[in-house]
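Hi,

I'm pasting everything inline rather than attaching a file, because the server keeps stripping attachments. The sequence lines come first, and each chain or strand is labelled.
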Amino acid sequence: MGTVIVDVMPKPEILDPQGKAVRAALPRLGLDGFTEVRQGKRFELTVDGEVTEEVLAQARQAAETLLSNPIIEDVVAITAVQECACGKGGCC
Amino acid sequence: MGTVIVDVMPKPEILDPQGKAVRAALPRLGLDGFTEVRQGKRFELTVDGEVTEEVLAQARQAAETLLSNPIIEDVVAITAVQECACGKGGCC
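And the predicted assembly:
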C-alpha cells in the first residue's frame, strides 16, 4: 500500500486571511519568532499497490484539476510514500 | 530566512468529509487509481534568521496549541527548511 502526498499553498500574491489570523495569534501565545504564516492544504491519496509512474501521473492530474484552484493556488509538492514491510510509510 | 513547515491531518478515526468528497469526485475525472483520500492542513511559518532549535521548539508549541485541534487532528510532521545562498529553500 502506498500513498501520494499533494501539498497545495495559496499563491504568494493571494492574501491568505487564515494565515494572517494565525500570524496575529502567535504573539498572544508568547510565540514571537515568526514573521509570516501561510496556510495551505495537504492531501493524502492512498493506493492499493505501489506508487507507480501511472499513479503519480494520475496524482499530478488530480492536483492540477481537483485539489487546487490554479488561479489562486500552487501545487508545491507531490511526494510518493511507499509502505514497507515494517508497516510504516516512508522509512525504506 | 528560513521556514518551518507544519503538517496537520485529521486523526484516522475522524470521518473527514472533505477527503471523502474528493475521493468520490476522482473517478468522475477518470482517475480511478486511489482507494482513499484524506485532507489536512499545511502551514508555512517564516522566520527572519535561521531555523534554530528555539524556533523549532516554538513551532512545536504552536503546532500543538494553535495549528491543530488535538482531539480530532494529529501533527504529522514539523520540517525545517533553510534558505540557502542560491535563494531557493531546502536545496542545500
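The two ends of chain A are 13 Å apart (CA to CA).

If the labels don't parse on your end, tell me and I'll reformat.
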